[in-house]
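If your schedule permits, I should be very grateful for your opinion on a structural question. I have a record of one protein: its chain in single-letter code and its fold written as discrete structure tokens. Kindly check, if you would, that the fold set down in the tokens agrees with what the sequence suggests. I remain grateful for any guidance, and I place the record below:

***
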Amino acid sequence: MQDRPGKSRENDPTIEDVAAAAGVSIRTVSRVLNKSPKVNAETRSRIEAEIERLHFRPSLRARAFAMRRSFLIGLVHNDRNALVLDSIQRGIVELTAARGYELIVHPTPLEAGAAIGDVIGFAERSRVDGLVILPPVSGVAGLAAALDAAQVPAVALSSVPIEGFAGVILSDERAAGAQVARHLLDLGHRRLAIINGPADTASAMERRAGFLEEAARQADASVAEAFGDYAFESGGKAAHLLLDLAQRPTAIFAANDIMAAGVLKVAANRGIDVPADLSVVGFDGSLLTRMLTPALTSVLRPFGAMAAAAADQLIARIEGMPPPAPFHATLHILPAETTGPAPRCEATA
């Protein structure tokens, strides 16, 4: 039964109607609607049959009032990358929609004092049942303790364990950084460069550490460094600095796809052939990698699966259910058209 605009639901079947038809209590119907394990299979089947026969649709407002919950989940972030956010939101919504929850997205400042007050204020105003918190906000010092004190359930995504969060979805970005260095070294590159993300961001520093550690295993390899802020413009600015070096790198690892796109633009403007003269690697494995020409080699982060796992953990906490199996995101490099063998002649251009 579909609602038409302006149509009243006064004559729609109620939870009382379902209970009467199934010969059970309203509480038992409520348990079935909330997927409680406390209802036996035969009773559950009978109630579900009456729900379908009557075309019953529970009122979210009434359900929330009765259970003293809002059935809202908040997504807190400080990320300007629309492609990454879209993947994360889709991953959460695919799971929450099936469980009867809605998603509210909230950007927050990154400074510790401002971030904590902003996140707590958002949770109180919106009355969300819990929060999924993305990096780098998840790494803000004191945030986990503040959420715990405010009794706001939260699950964090992070590249490193975070003390205080009951649930953390981890991705090993240090190992991924090492994968990138090994990929380039195996292609014969010895003059490497890295464009790091913000120095106060754990994920960026994990990528950097893994890349440098692996490169250091190769005695004749060198690594030049520049810093960006994950924005396209910063990738281009860093690329100019690196390509102006007397010993110009033959391979550049940018700590996200957007900065890598900046590198590709600078290379094109300078007449540097990618990958014949310069190999480029990004990080995220976002849709952007397939939109660029040449297609960008990148590290794939399974944002959708990570986000869905975080939402699954959070809903289990909200509903007092046993926690789902731990989820650890595996990152791997996806070779494409921007990486190739090192130039035979590595003389400076």
